[in-house]
Amino acid sequence: GSIARHCLKQLEVLDIVEKDPKGGRRITSNG
């Protein structure tokens, strides 16, 4: 799980993934 979480963090840095207000994650229009 830590690896997937790390990947999601990298995507967030690239603004491809943004944190959902509900606490989840979703792909942005850039992704």
Automatic annotation (TrEMBL):
Q: Which Gene3D superfamilies match?
A: Winged helix-like DNA-binding domain superfamily/Winged helix DNA-binding domain (1.10.10.10)
From which domain of life does this come?
A: Eukaryota
Endpoints of the signal sequence: none
What's this protein's name? Answer: RpS18
Q: What is the lineage of its organism?
A: Eukaryota, Viridiplantae, Streptophyta, Embryophyta, Bryophyta
